[in-house]
Every structure is written in C-alpha cells, then in structure tokens.
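Office hours follow-up: a student asked to see two folded examples consecutively, so here they are.
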Amino acid sequence: MSASGGTKAIVAALSANLAIAVAKFVAFAFSGSSSMLAEGVHSLADSGNQALLLVGGKKAKREANDEHPFGYGRERYIYAFLVSIVLFSVGGMFALYEGYEKIKHPHEIEHWYWPIGVLVFAIIAESFSFRTAIIESNQTRGALSWTDFIRRAKAPELPVVLLEDFGALVGLVLALCGVGIALATGDGVWDGIGTLCIGILLIVIALVLAAETKSLLLGEGAGAESVAMIREAIVDGDTVTGVIHMRTLHLGPEELLVAAKIAVRHDDTAAEVARAIDAAEARIREAVPIARVIYLEPDIYSEAAAAAGPDPTQTPGGDPHPH
C-alpha cells in the first residue's frame, strides 16, 4: 500500500465521520434515541482514530538518528494499535453502557424523523468512505481475499479504515433496525437492544484490530513471495552459490531489513567476495525495493558442518537450500 493511498482513504473517512457525528448528536438531542447517542460517540471515536493514523504517518517519516538507527517506521503500527484501544474503550464500552441504561429505563423516541433521516444520510456518507477504502485497497490487494489482505497487510492504515467503515455501516443498519422497531412497537427497549448490538460489534472489530496490529508491533517478516525473490536475487551461481540462512523483518510498512549468511567458494579472494556482496545487495533492492537495510555475511558452505549441526539452517556453513 502506498502512503498516499492510505492517506486518501483516511481523509475520506475523517471527513465523512465528522459530518456524521455532528448529524447524529443533533438527532439525539431532538429524539432522545440511545442508538443515535451511541452512534454519535462511535463516529466521534472513528474521527479521533483517523486523526491518530494521520499523526502516526507523519511521525513515521522522521529521519533515523543515533537513538533510533532504524528510523521511526513502526510509529504507524503503534498508532494503529491505539486506534483499536480507542474503538474498544470509547466506542464499544460506551455503547454497551448506554444500551444497558436504555433497556433498564426505556422511553419512547421523540421526533422520529430526526434519527431516521440522519441514519439514512450516514449510511450514504459511510458508503462513499467505504468505497474509497475499497478502491485504494484493490490497488495493492492483488489476488488476496479480503480476510487475507487484512491479516497480511504490512501497512496498517487501509485495514483499519476498512474495518472501521464496515463496522460503521453495520452499526448504522443495527441502529436503524433498533429505532425502526422501537417506533413500530412503541417500546423503547428495542432502541437499547440496537445500542447493545452496536457495542458488541465495535468490541469485536477492536479485538481483531488489536490482534493484527500486535503482530506487526512484535515484528513480522517479509511475505513468502518476497522471501523467494530475495533468495533468488542473492545467488549469482558464480561467487555466491547459495543462501545458508536468512532472516527478514519489517522496520515499517515500506522498509524491510534483510540479514543473510551466504555461501561462497573457498578459493575466492576477499575482493571477489566484497564485489559479489555489493552486486547481491543491488539485485535484492531491484527485486524488492523496500529492502533498504541489508546485511550479508559470507561463509564457506561445508556439508560436514551442516551434517554436524542439529539444525542445518542455523549452523554456520550449513545447508544453502533449506527446506
């Protein structure tokens, strides 16, 4: 995902949510609907979340320094994790509390046209925001399913916006159902039930976001396709005869660290090995442009050393083609 694509989706979602939040709070003031209050807080939390993503993206662009030699790329993961916390605490828990209070102390909805009109407007606005996120995601999603895209994406912004917009649309439908049934039956309990359902939905989405961003914070390696391309780029068949073992780590969504022990011939000179390493680094960056930090350690492959080790892929001089 490009940074510009993610920013476009975030700005679209932020603009929609700010307008929707104002409309929902106005509708709550006139109707007294707890679903509208919960949805208003939801939209306000979503607006704050998108602001957090924008701040994280800006902070991540800071240059590396002595204190942070690998830069600040993971700032984007930290702020995405904060989004899940805000969505859980402010959005989900508040909706659960408000739903419980409305079920315990129900009252009829006044001026029904306010919540109905605002919910229809909100569904239309959220649909445009969701459409923007889908279009931007499709540019990098490839053949992945939506579930796999959310699970495997290294850039957190689009998965966050996608899940937020999806949750917002489902929440609006739940609110519309709750308000509609409350109006049809004259029983305000249904408004509270709709609010409870919104709270449960937001908490589930928050937990999914927390799990995915936690994995990114802990450190994820490159995808299988990128790993295969890097391995192929390292080996030239002449000086570099194989990859003994290799590790990759995302320093940020668009920055990858590659560390590998490579096999060279025993009769190569130091100058030849140095030239081969420089050439291998150039091939890696051409094959996988986000591989910006590369460490290649030469070693002489030895079948005897490989056989002696408990794990050939971990043994210096071990198997250059581990399975």
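And the second, which I mentioned at the end of office hours:
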Amino acid sequence: MSDHRTVLVPEGLAGERVDTALARMFGVSRSRAAELVGQGLVHVDGQEVAKSERVHAGSMLEATIPALAPVAVKPEIVEGIGIIHDDDALVVIDKPVGVAVHPSPGWSGPTVVGHLAAAGFRISTSGASERQGIVQRLDVGTSGVMVIAKSESAYSILKNAFRHRTVDKTYHALVQGHPDPFRGTIEAPIARHPKFDHKYAVISGGRHSVTHYETLEAHRFASLLELHLETGRTHQIRVHMQALHHPCVGDPLYGGDPVLAERVGLRRQWLHAVRLGFDHPDSGEYVEYESPYPDDLAHALDVIRGLD
C-alpha cells in the first residue's frame, strides 16, 4: 500500500531543497525523502525533480510514499535489563545503554521488546507489531527507568497519560559548565536538523518542547542537573542543553567535548532516566519507580567530583 500526498509549498520553505522540504512537510527522514525522489515518486508542479533542486512558494509538491515493511521482533535475552516492577497491567524496567526499545529499519542490535518476548512476558498487542505495548521510548544511548503496558486497558490509559503530560519524567544529566541561572525552563521548538538526518535542533516552526532543569551539584568542569520533561521530543534534553551551550558530557553529536569525555571514561552521553511517576492504570494510585546510576555514569561523576 502507498500513501499519496499533495501539498502547496509554504513561504517558509521557499528555496529549500526538494528532499528537505519533503521531509519537513511530510514528517519523513531526509534520507527517506531522498530515496523517494530518486525513485521518481516525487513531483513538483507535475514534473519529476532531483533531490537537490529548490522549491518555490506556492508550488505543488506531490509524493507517493510506499508503506515500509514491518520489522520483526527477535526474541533475545538482553544482559543488563532489570525488572523493577511487574504486575498484570504493566512491567517497569531498567534499560541499559546500547539497547533500543523496539526494532526499527537499520537497527540490528538488542531491543526491550525482544528481551520481554524471550523472557516470557506477555505484553499488550496494541500498537504497531514491532512496538506493541510501548507507551514511551528512551534513546539507545540513554539508560534508565521506563514502563511497558501488558494489558490492553493499561496501554490505552498509559498512552493517554503520556499524551496529556500527566506522567512525571525525571532525568539526571551531567552537563559541561554551569547553567545560568542554576534553575530554569527551556522552551524552544524542536525539529529534525535541516542538514543532518540523524540529528535534531531548535528550529522555528518545530514542535513545542519544554524542559525544566535544576542544578544539583556544581563542579569545576561540569554540573549535575535534575530535569523534568513536559514534552517528550526525540533527543529533547540533548538538544535543549546544546542550545543552552551546556551539552551533556560525553555527547559529541550535540556539542560535547571529546577530551572531557575521554578524561572521565565516557563513551556515551551522561543522561539517565532516574524516576518515573504516574497513576497506576488499574488502581488509580500514584506510583513511582527509580533507577540508580549505572556504573559508567557513576564513575564519570566521581571523576568530575575529584577534579574540583
């Protein structure tokens, strides 16, 4: 099956490359947009175009987008995944770094849903086949606490809670320098980076994004922050901290200093989902679950403290 879409190019995208405009307007990645152009599935004012051609305001952009084949779940026990809580409605896990939440095109590594399948957990069948039961996601490079729905009613209630921002999501991040003020709110729209398909950036017209932060510890080279997310955009904390000029330690993709990362022994961004709180979908009682720092983050923080 294919999805055929037709839109008029707005003033704000005038002069952009065809693949960039397609990605921005249709919500696909830039690499996917380039593939569609290369396959002759994109027309501007009725004519086939090259991906590097520029679009003009008022032009008619048409695209036929074939549906991607579903990605299969591979049952596989993943070392390091911890079960924090398990009941009939949900399972709360401690996700290690290097594990994706669900399969996706281009990812062949371990996944949370694959681990749960291999471990005999029966989770909700709601959602796409490769991410059934998934009501939230953490980046592959981010560790910490997350919840997966087991029953259909829990999936519906939890999905709605995340959508309406009634879930308390708390992260800790070690960032370079010292944010000024020590406590504040970052409200800046986020969209896919216009030049790098694998990145996101603060961009006018992007999706509304809000991050609250508070400094827990201030050290010579870095600060430990507690962050609360109102919204849940991809790479939100990493993008917002880079925009504040205080990127996460160990995050070269978003401006982190590789020399400092090497000094503290980090091979990924210092970012951890420490706490998750919500109304339990069965009892309605407020519950809260926590995850301690994994060894690599705890070690890096100790090194930073020792450099004062």
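Two things to take away from it. The mean pLDDT is 91. The chain has seven helices and 15 strands.
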